[in-house]
Specification:
Elements lengths: L1 H9 L4 E6 L6 E6 L7 E2 L2 E4 L4 H18 L4 E8 L7 H18 L1 E2 L8 H11 L7 H6 L5 H15 L18 H21 L7 E5 L3 H12 L3 E6 L3 E9 L1 H9 L12 E2 H7 L7 E4 L8 H9 L4 E3 L15 H9 L1 E3 L1 H4 L2 H9 L8 H22 L6 H13 L1
Parallel strand pairs: 3-5, 3-6, 4-5, 7-8, 7-11, 11-12, 12-13
Antiparallel strand pairs: 1-2, 2-5, 8-9, 9-10
Helix pairs in contact: 2-14, 2-16, 3-4, 7-8, 7-15, 8-9, 14-15, 15-16
Length: about 400
């Protein structure tokens, strides 16, 4: 496993595209780890302080994710080092997508990611430049689709990703309409926990959970877990959070989901960040969902949760632990030996799987079919891991070994 990992991590990416914006301080990279199967895929993220190394590590993570979600393509990622709250964000994105358009036309498919919205930013800007869909490069490079096939696959992508959810099983009640892209990743993160307990054994109902990050992933995961009878006892977000040792009700969690402003937790009696960051890690929980930015969870925080009864981590964020290593640093390894760690490439593969499903010939464009397919994909991946290792420890290491054997 260590040898496989070393080989995979040290292999130079096939393509690195570097960009400096002519009209602002923004800079960006597309890293394509490989053109396995003729194409590569991975979303676009923006944050201040992002560097090429982060994009490179995320591209490698995507390559591993495609072994679970399909299609059998290479991993890629786009990253822009720029403040997403800057009023010039849209102009920067326009210039960025114009520059990367040849890649998106031929062999690279992208989507939304941290601080970049698929439906409101990626799709309209790239359409404006003549791209049929942000996944068009995969349809061309991997599927080599002829004109009628291309029209059908892209039609399914356009309809499926932006589909307004109607089935009450998959969307919180409220005045706002939510789309597949809003809910699917968080759904997968929650399903990973549900399938874990059904495969390895144990009751999910009544377990306590802490959620880190209240964006689409964390907030949706909390809603789906609450439906299963999980008590959400703590939420920590960028500016503060909430603790309720007896657990918030399903209605309270749905209300917090609906009241979000962008990706921000909005609540009365919000505990300021410094105070909640001091307290929350000792609030006992069996389930932890890291769903904020990458590389935030420290060893000390991890130890405190383990001491307070932690059983399962389902990674909503890519590489959530504060390790410099791409996949498996000391914090990740330590946690994998102490608790059941469901890795990011299984837990948060929902959106990647939706793209793969919508590009297939069998796709049905119903809420139930799309969400059911994601659930089945995550279950299959966990069953493969269980077949190789039925212990509750080293779940992430076993899963990674299964994936790397397909790539190295």
């Amino acid at each position: 496993m260590k040898e496989l990992l070393k080989k995979f991590e040290n292999k130079q990416p096939e393509i690195i595209f570097e960009w400096s914006d002519s009209e602002s301080e923004a800079e960006g990279w597309v890293v394509i780890n490989s053109l396995r199967g003729g194409a590569a895929g991975g979303g676009t993220r923006m944050r201040k302080g992002l560097d090429k190394r982060e994009v490179e590590s995320l591209a490698k993570t995507m390559e591993v994710k495609f072994t679970v979600s399909g299609p059998a393509i290479g991993g890629a990622k786009s990253g822009i080092n720029f403040d997403p709250n800057d009023p010039r964000k849209e102009e920067v994105l326009r210039r960025w997508y114009k520059a990367v358009m040849p890649l998106l036309k031929n062999y690279y498919g992208t989507g939304g990611d941290l601080n970049i919205d698929e439906i409101h930013e990626v799709i309209p800007i790239t359409e404006n430049y003549g791209l049929w869909h942000p996944q068009e490069g995969i349809v061309n490079g991997h599927f080599h689709a002829n004109e009628p096939e291309k029209i059908r696959k892209i039609g399914q992508l356009r309809q499926g990703v932006s589909k307004v959810l109607e089935d009450p099983h998959y969307t919180p009640n409220g005045p706002k309409k939510y789309k597949v892209a809003d809910m699917i990743t968080g759904f997968g993160v929650a399903e990973a926990v549900r399938h874990f307990y059904s495969i390895w054994g144990g009751n999910l109902a009544g377990k306590r959970a802490i959620i880190q990050g209240w964006g689409n992933v964390g907030a949706a995961a909390a809603c789906f877990l609450a439906v299963e009878g999980v008590k959400i006892v703590g939420i920590i977000d960028r500016e503060g959070g909430l603790i309720n040792p007896s657990g918030f009700t399903l209605d309270e969690i749905r209300n917090l989901f609906i009241k979000r402003e962008g990706n921000k937790l909005i609540a009365d009696q919000m505990i300021p960040f410094a105070e909640i960051n001091e307290k929350i890690w000792d609030t006992g929980c069996e389930i932890f969902i890291p769903a904020a930015a990458s590389r935030l969870v420290t060893k000390e925080q991890a130890e405190r949760m383990v001491n307070a009864g932690l059983e399962v981590i389902s990674c909503g964020a890519n590489v959530p632990f504060a390790d410099p290593e791409i996949f498996f640093g000391p914090i990740g390894v330590w946690l994998d030996e102490k608790v059941s760690l469901i890795p990011d490439f299984i837990a948060n593969c929902g959106m990647a799987r939706v793209f793969a499903y919508l590009m297939s010939d069998q796709a049905l464009l119903t809420d139930e079919a799309i969400f059911g397919d994601v659930s089945k994909t995550i279950k299959n991946a966990l069953q493969k891991t269980y077949a190789k290792n039925s212990s509750r420890n080293k779940v992430a290491e076993t899963s990674l070994e299964i994936a790397l054997k397909q790539l190295v």
